[in-house]
Amino acid sequence: MAEGEVTVIVAYQVNAEDVDRFMDAWEKAQAHLKKQKGFVSTTLYRAESANPYFRFVNVGCWQDADHFRAATQNSKFQEASGRLAPYPLYASVYEVAQT
Amino acid sequence: MAEGEVTVIVAYQVNAEDVDRFMDAWEKAQAHLKKQKGFVSTTLYRAESANPYFRFVNVGCWQDADHFRAATQNSKFQEASGRLAPYPLYASVYEVAQT
Description:
The structure is a homodimer. Chain A is α+β, with helices and mostly antiparallel strands. The first copy, chain A, has three helices and four strands; from the N terminus they run βαββααβ.
């Protein structure tokens, strides 16, 4: 990661029967975010086990926290990500503490 | 990530006053894991906000899930990671679903 970049980690609770629906919704939201200023990269991880607490975790990288907030705190993002609403999530902005 | 590698994501709940104690405990556990067969890399992320749900998230990479399990399911790891016990955590083995 380059100097000043931040990592946005979002952990999602998704039932097994909702995986395809979740993936479609995630892709729609990401397609929007990828076009926003300050977006660097994103990786969606899927749990290997059958019944994990968090089936999906998204680790995204942004140039800085302000760009991330500007990209997500507006009605266009709310519309693009609306189909993710059914899935409980925990999200925060992170910095690297240690490797 | 190379073919076959897996990602281990662990989200920790840590109170603000416990940050230094948690970091010490995490470093001890990681010092042990880094010497185990199959370890590839690890990154500990720390939340930027004052009161996040998960203050720390660890994203680790292993050559495969079997190596990770062998490294963590034994008494030596239990000893090395014992001081992490006070912190509630959610851990799973993940594969990359989408980038």
